UniProtKB/TrEMBL annotation:
This is Sulfotransferase. One of its GO terms (cellular component) is cytoplasm. Keywords: Catecholamine metabolism, Cytoplasm, Transferase. One of its GO terms (biological process) is xenobiotic metabolic process. Its EC number is 2.8.2.-. InterPro entries: P-loop_NTPase, Sulfotransferase_dom. It is an enzyme of class 2 (transferase). It is found in: Cytoplasm.
């Protein structure tokens, strides 16, 4: 399947036609989850690959064989992509599934299910920057234009996969409607990787011995993933993902937005964030700890943040 220039529109949200069809999107919204399933949910560029790696390593008790021999899109296939059904047929053991879909498209499918849902969020300024760079190398996504043009589309929610604000609000506001739900942030994984692996381990009810935890941590650190072809998407052909224009796993840092945003763009973004998340208690880390960490909440960018457990 190519369709690199095709955009599928499904219930008002744009999806890249290279990976999605009307049929695959319809199938996803009507998917029959099993109670043993684990579903990783993210908005694009929010730590998806990282969580796929963590869950894979926790499930294998730190054994890296599978994460070094099987691509992540095969061991944690995307629910809404056209090849999902074929990959699901050959999966063995409890199923690990990934999605970028918003809550309202999966609410009906998850109703009554005991499937475990892990939602990973990232501060939206870093999401916007990472997503912009990804557009520049992914030939199945539209030309992002200038960063200012892309940022305006991001704030308007007209980029592929829709609004970040709607996505994060939809899933977190409905967390109580999901039987088994874990919220974790990209920044939490960056600042305390071992603690994050332990958190996932407890949620999945897969206890790890100290040596298993150490092995899992080793193989899901950013530098390890960056050099692993099963994770870094270098297996994808150049005509689909142009690696000469950038790396899929580019920097992975907290606060890279400061290298892209102008002061005016940052103020505009903060204003939209306060409006969009005015009734939310979510908080985000905007700078790396060693660079004098600043924590913002959605209502007051000067207020101290509260961690969401």
């Amino acid at each position: 399947m190519s369709r690199l220039d095709v955009t599928e529109c499904y219930q008002g949200i744009s999806f890249c036609g290279h990976l999605h069809t009307q049929e695959s999107l319809q199938y996803a919204t009507n998917f029959q989850f099993q109670d043993t399933d684990t579903l990783i949910v993210t908005y694009p560029k929010s730590g998806t690959t990282w969580m796929q790696q963590i869950v894979s390593l926790v499930s294998s008790h730190g054994d890296a064989t599978r994460v070094q021999t099987e691509p992540n899109w095969s061991r944690a296939p995307w629910l809404e992509q056209y090849y999902f059904c074929d990959l699901l047929k050959v999966q063995q053991g409890p199923r690990l599934i990934t999605t970028h879909l918003p809550y309202h498209l999966l609410a009906s499918a998850l109703q009554g299910s005991k499937a475990k849902v892990i939602y990973v969020a990232r501060n939206p300024k870093d999401v916007a920057v990472s997503y912009y760079h990804f557009h520049k190398m992914a030939n199945f996504l539209p030309d992002p234009g200038t960063f200012e043009e892309f940022l305006n589309a991001f704030l308007d929610g007209t980029v592929h996969f829709g609004s970040w604000f709607s996505h994060v609000k939809g899933w977190t506001n409905n967390a109580n409607n999901v039987k088994n739900f874990l919220y974790i942030t990209y920044e939490e994984m960056w600042q305390d990787l071992r603690g994050s692996v332990e958190k996932v381990s407890r949620f999945l009810r897969i206890p790890l011995q100290d040596q298993e935890l150490a092995a899992a941590e080793k193989h899901c650190c950013f530098s390890s993933m960056q050099g692993n072809s099963m994770v870094n998407y270098t297996l994808i052909p150049q005509e689909i993902m142009d690696h000469s224009k950038g790396k899929f796993m580019r920097k992975g840092k907290i606060g890279d937005w400061k290298n892209m945003f102008s002061e005016e763009q940052s103020r505009l973004f903060d204003a939209v964030l306060r409006t969009q998340l005015s009734e939310s208690s979510l908080t985000f880390v905007w700078e790396c700890a060693e660079e004098s960490t600043i924590l913002h909440d959605s209502k007051n960018t000067e207020a101290p943040a509260r961690r969401v457990a």
